[in-house]
Amino acid sequence: MANSLDRDDAGNADTGNAETGNGGETQQLASGKDQVLTTNHGVPVSDNQNSLKAGDRGPTLLEDFVLREKIFHFDHERIPERIVHARGSVAHGYFECTDPIPDLSRASLFAEAGKRTPVIVRFSTVAGGAGSVDTPRDVRGFATKFYTDQGNWDLVGNNIPVFFIQDAIKFPDLIHSVKMEADRGFPQAASAHDTFWDFVSLMPETMHTVMWAMSDRGIPRSYRMMQGFGVHTFKLVNEAGQAQFVKFHWRPKLGMQSLVWDESAKLQGADNDFHRRDLWEAIEAGDHPEWELGIQVFDQALADSLPYDVLDATKIIPEEVVALRVIGRMVLDRNPDNHFAENEQLAFLPSNVVPGIDFSDDPLLQGRLFSYLDTQKSRLGTTNFHQIPVNAPKCPYANMMRDGMMQTQVPEGRANYEPNSLSEAGEDGGPRASARGYRTAPQRVEGEKLRQRAESFADHFSQPRMFWRSQTENEQAHIASAIVFELSKVGLDHIRRRVLSQLRNVDDTLAQRVAEGLALDLPDAAPSAQAATDLDISDALSIQKNWHATLQGRKVGILFDAGSDNAAIQKLSDDIRQAGGTPFTIAPKVGGLKLQDGTLTADGQLAGSPSWLFDAVALVLTTDAAQKLAQDSAAVGFVSDAFAHLKAIGHDAGAQPLLDRAGIKADAGITDLAGLTKAATQRYWAREPQVRDLA
Ligand code: HDE
């Protein structure tokens, strides 16, 4: 296909090879060097600076089709943002099967070891608008489109394995309550407000997901350091039609890491795009993010033996109960070329499954199967959204669906119905259904038509209690403090009290700590449909218990100034790179500064590069420079915030006046420069009680 218009200097097109029109190839937007600027209809433009006027100071003429078309198009550049998950970031890559499962599923992407399937992934926040920030406390979307050779499979999951509600009919209420409040239009991208907590307090089934969202899972350090979950129970179906239940898990190669709350709040000012930039830069640097795909497979008998219902999306099956089997890995190795074409126009559908993968009767999943198809029509304007390149399957597709707005295909022949006998007359009869096509796993279904929640969905508190009990002491403090923070933003007292009464059903000490943090009396426990039981704790639920002590994927900010030891900076940078991290130099001025040995140009200026942006910091300063910086609030804040955010601080002897001014006390995370690459693999949780009054 000719994808650029060749023009001579006079703007004449050489259309010699570019077929257009019926049955031919469609001309694409020209790209590359030496292109002639044209209108959308291909007419060369001679002047893109001045509109057509009557006289050089006269009125603009209606006949100016160049101006009108340009402004007209611009006026319509935006499409409706996603009603949820509006803000997201995408990357391309591949899934590679490492442990084939033909016995469990006939999905072709799981058929052979080494088989690669292209993917696109979109990570997102839920509540904020498309232009909001990356680091609020929120659930994160983790949606993967597998372009398999049997069609597209979309695994549209989250970084939290449970959901707030059990039935799709509650979704609009949940989302209305968490989004900015209807009258005032704030707060943006935050759950800390009356309406969300009102909903939570009245819907005890939210409690499990609330615990996860209030934990450090709600403020991930990086998309690359999050787990992903399909959430619902799905089915795998093999060639013989036998079905097993399955839950899908993504496990990040870098391990899980999170921010601390004060840091995540400050990052919302320092870098709106903190996660988007991190993903982009890692891929640009060739440091390709990677996850393992794990499955928990179980049958009806196991499902029946559990004290909760596997069709209830507010429940997990702990890995200690059904082990994870890793069957593949996903690598993201290519950034998008265009944010609009590949992110805004990307359309996920949980109803996109391939032969070998099937749905369960989870009532939340069942509702999603309708919602996503429906919403794409509203967002993308046409039932032909599947033709947008990022949504189109990469395998051939053929059917009798025709026409519709923005139809770009030009089917040939008369066979637009089926069955037909046109082939008997030598015409193309078109595609036919195949016995190898998608087959739903047979399942006996019976029951009365009714609107009723199953009894087996009634235990809302045992799993949140299990989650709470599975956390480290420090993680529990984060949860309690997060709830105190959120409820401190709730203006209506009765809502706060009702949340406390629900928390009592999860764990009395948690409720007590939150009440104390708010200086409120502890109300009675809310009536509950089913009292919580003590399930076994699950270490897999804790981030800190599963910490990967590595510098990979972590960034170290190195503060220097005129006169600093360049050799020390270079050595430290090399060591950081060697350990898989990224050094970033910072100075009060970004032009080249004269150092003891040579000059150095900083990557960032101090005022624009607070320590919130880094996982650890280094100070390479002369005593004179440190004394001067001790008078600069940006420099003092750089150090004191790194300390308060529990980061490693490496320094040379000269930096002492700045450390003293910032009130830094020695601990395991405060080190000389030589010790920093090791120290920077950790956060110093033990320091936290010194720097923060935790609930
Ligand atoms: Fe979604 N959700 N959702 N959701 N969801 C959307 O689809 C919906 C749910 C999730 O990056 C929307 O294309 C309903 C659970 C992700 O493009 C919409 C219910 C999980 C994304 C929609 C749920 C998710 C969405 C908005 C309750 C985790 C972003 C735009 C029955 C398993 C996809 C769009 C992307 C997006 C509806 C619950 C994950 C409106 C009705 C549970 C990751 O269709």
Automatic annotation (TrEMBL):
Keyword Oxidoreductase part of the UniProt annotation: yes
Catalytic activity line of the entry: 2 H2O2 = O2 + 2 H2O
Active site positions: H85, N158
E.C. number: 1.11.1.6
GO function terms (MF aspect): catalase activity; heme binding; metal ion binding
Keywords: Heme, Hydrogen peroxide, Iron, Metal-binding, Oxidoreductase, Peroxidase
Sites where the protein binds heme: R82, R122, F171, R368, Y372, R379
Chain segments carrying region Disordered: 1-33, 414-448
Entry-linked Pfam families: Catalase (PF00199), Catalase-rel (PF06628), Catalase_C (PF18011)
PROSITE patterns: CATALASE_1, CATALASE_3
Biased composition annotated in UniProt, kind: Basic and acidic residues: 1-10
Residues of the Catalase core domain: 38-426
GO cellular component: cytosol
CDD domains linked: GATase1_catalase
Cofactor(s) needed: heme
InterPro entries (alphabetical): Catalase, Catalase_clade2, Catalase_clade2_helical, Catalase_core, Catalase_haem_BS, Catalase_immune_responsive, Catalase_large_C, Catalase_sf
Top enzyme class: oxidoreductase
GO annotation terms (biological process): hydrogen peroxide catabolic process; response to oxidative stress
UniProt keyword Heme present: yes
Family per similarity comment: Belongs to the catalase family. HPII subfamily.
PANTHER family (alphabetical): CATALASE, CATALASE-B
Role description: Decomposes hydrogen peroxide into water and oxygen; serves to protect cells from the toxic effects of hydrogen peroxide.
Protein name, entry field: Catalase
